[in-house]
Amino acid sequence: MEYKFLVSYVLILIALYYSYREKLGIEKTILINSLRAFIQLLILGYALVYIFKLKHPIELIFILFLMILFASYTAQNRVNLKEKGFLVAFLSIFFSSSLVIASLLVLQIISFKPNELIPVGGMVIGNSLNVYSLTVDRLKGEIKNNIDLIENFIAIGATLKNALYEMKKASVKAALIPTLNNLQTVGIIHIPGITTGMLLAGAEPLKAVSYQLAIMYMMVAVALFTAVITINIGYRKIFVSVFS
């Protein structure tokens, strides 16, 4: 049973073949990341045995901080901002994730137990990483497609922030599409693993659904916070990176 994942790797091979045939140029990325996923999940499986035994809050906060650092590093590699890109990614992911995780703790939706804080924190940080990448990538595209309009706005005295106003709005909305799609289809198309797992463990349906709703709502919050923070602190660097 443990080796069934090897059979599923056929799907990766199909993706590699298609990418090679159509000259998409992402074969190396697919291959490396698929192998990295296996190694990282294998390490995670053994690491969680020890992490779930931690009791001091500082230890748990340190683990979350390391996760944010790695997410920031990954985000910078993904969008490749030339000027202080890592700092923009770190601040966006750190502030948005911290705000949502702190809210969940204050509202007592989760507690400072490692089996609650670390998995939920990981979901928050991972979603923040995805939204950051989508926001930056979309704003880059908007700037490239509307450079004449931006120049006209600046020529009549507008600041860069004002000249990019509509493009920033479009980037935030585009970055939220995957999260809003999940929110709209949850329970009908998207069947959440947390709800299924809790029901299989014998939890009451209302309890399982309530916990899943809290997770979905936190995903919407962290997505919005990440997109807005990214746009407001990084628009200048994103603009510069388009032409560097």
UniProtKB/TrEMBL annotation:
GO terms for cellular component: plasma membrane. Pfam families: UPF0014. It is a multi-pass membrane protein. It comes from the Bacteria. The chain crosses the membrane at residues 6-21, 33-52, 58-75, 87-110, 214-235. The keyword Transmembrane applies. This is Putative ABC transport system permease protein.
